[in-house]
Amino acid sequence: MKANSSRFTIYLVSIIAAMTGLLFGFDTGIISGALLFIQKDFPVSTEVKEMIVSSVLLGAMAGSLFCGRLTDYYGRRKVMLIISALFIIGTVLATTASAVTGIIVGRLCIGLAIGIGSYSAPLYIAEAAPLHLRGGLVSFNQLAITIGILVSFIVNLAFTEVNGSWRWMFAIGIIPAVLLSIGMLLLPESPRWLVKCGKVDQAKKTLKYLRGDVDVDQELSEIQKTLHVRSASLSEIFASWSRPVLFLGVMLGFLQQVTGINTIIYYAPTIFQMAGFHSNFSSILATIGIGVVNVLSTVFAIYFLDKIGRRPLLLAGLIGMCVSLLSLSWAFSFNAHSDMLRWMAVASTFFYIICFAFSLGAMLWLMVSEIFPLQVRGIAMSVAVFSCWFWNFVVSSTFLTLLEKVGPGCAFLLYAAMCAFGFVFCFYKVPETSGVSLEQIENNIRKRMPLRAIGQPVLANLTLQQAEQ
Question: Residue 236 pLDDT > 70, yes or no?
C-alpha cells in the first residue's frame, strides 16, 4: 500500500512540475490562431507579425543563458515558482495590451519563463524521481508540451467567433500558470539540491516522502558522492575531450529547428489558408488535428524509445519528415487551391508532425540529458538549449519573409533539404544510448571514442583506433 502511495506521490510531483511544459506548449501554439485576429485590430507589416511570433523566442534565449546558474543558486522549487510568476505577468501584459508593443513585451516575459523552465522542470523531475521511473517521468514534460499545443489550438477554435478573441486566447494561459504556482508551493525542494546546500537531514526527509517505506540511506549516499564532482567553467566545455559531444548537442538543437517544425506550429492556420481553407474557423479546426497527432505520436515515442532505440526512431522520422515536406512543396508548387492538392497539403502536414514527434521532437531533450558528462552537464545543456532557441528564432522570424520572397513551394523544399542533411548527420554521428548507463557513456567519451560509438557498451574497453575500425 505504501509502495502504491509513494508511486502516486512521485507521479503527482512530476505532473505538477510538468505544468511548465504545458505552459511552454500553450504559449507556443496559441499565437498561431491569435495572430489571425491581432492583425485585424492592429494593422501590421510582415516583419512586425514575425516579431510578435518570435519575441517569445528572444525571451527564451535569454532565459536559457542563465537557467543553470539560477537553479543552482536559488534551488529548483523556488525557480519554478519564479517561472509561474513570469508566466502570469507576461500573460496579463499580452492580454491587456493596447498596442503591439505591449503584446511583444508580454511575450518576451513569457519567453523568459519558457527558457528557464525548459531546463529546470526536467531537472527537478529527474532529481525527484527514482532511477527505475526516471526516463518515463522526465518524458512527462515533453508530453505536456504537446498537450499544451493541442489545448492552445482548441482554445483558438473556441474563441474564433468571440469579440476580442485574441485577448481571450492569451488570457486562458493564466489558469495553468496559477495551478503551477499553487502546486509548487505544496511540493518539496529537490533532494539533490538540498544535499548540495548541506541540508542533509532535510534531504533525507524529502527522499522518505518521495520514496515511501523504502530505505533511502544508499540513495542519499550516492547523491553525496556525485556532488563531489566539480562543476566545469564555460571554457572547460571546449576541452578536446568534451568538444565532440558539445558539438553533437548543439547540432541536435540546430536540426530540430531548421527542419521546419515551428513554421508548422506557429503558422499552421496561415499555411492552411494558403492551401485553400479560407475561413479562420476552418483553418484553425484543421490545426487541431495537428495537435491531436502530435500528442499521440509523442505517447508512441515515450513508449518505444527504450524498446526500439533512439537511432531507428530518429532516422525513420527524418526520412518521413523529408518526404512530407517534398509532398507539401509539390502541392503548393502545382496549384494548392485545387481540392486534391489542398488535401494533399493537409495530409503532408499531418504526416510531418507525426514523424517529427517520435523523432527530433522527443529525442533532443532526452539525448542532451544523456550525452554530457557530469562535470560539464549543466553548462553544456545550457549551450545546447540556447542553440535550439536561437535557431527557433531564426526560422520563425524569417518564415513569412521567405514565403513572400520565394513562395511556399520553395520554402518547404528548403526545409526538406535540411531534413536530408539531418539524416546524413545523424546516421554518421548520433549514438544509440538506450540501455547504456550515463557512467558508461561518460567513460567512452573520456576515452575519446567516435561520437557514434559512445553509446556502445561492447566497445567500452577498446582503444580509439579499434573503435574507428
Answer: yes
- Common-topology check for domains 1-187 and 232-452: yes
Q: What are phi and psi of 456, to 5 degrees?
A: -100, 105
232-452 is a CATH 1.20.1250.20 domain: yes
- Tell how many helices (H) and how many strands (E) occur in the chain: 21, 0
Mean pLDDT rounded to a whole number for the chain: 85
Model's pTM, two decimal places?
Answer: 0.80
Residues 170-198: tens digit of each pLDDT: 999 999 999 999 999 999 998 888 988 88
CA distance 317 to 314: 5
Architecture per CATH, domain 1-187, reads as Up-down Bundle (1.20)
> Cα-flanking dihedrals φ and ψ of residue 105, to 5°?
-65, -45
Q: Which of 317, 316, 323, 319 is nearest to 344 (CA)?
A: 323
Residue 353: phi and psi, rounded to 5, are -60, -40
Sign of CA dihedral 114, 442, 319, 297: negative
Neighbours of 229 (CB within 10 A): 11
Half-sphere exposure of 402 (CA within 13 A, CB side): 18
DSSP state string for 283-309: HHHHHHHHHHHHHHHHHHHHHHHHHH-
Domain boundaries, the chain: 1-187, 232-452
Ordered alpha helix ranges (H), 129-260: 134-158, 165-171, 174-186, 191-196, 200-211, 217-226, 243-258
Per residue in 53-97, pLDDT tens? Answer: 889 989 999 998 888 778 888 888 999 999 999 999 999 999 999
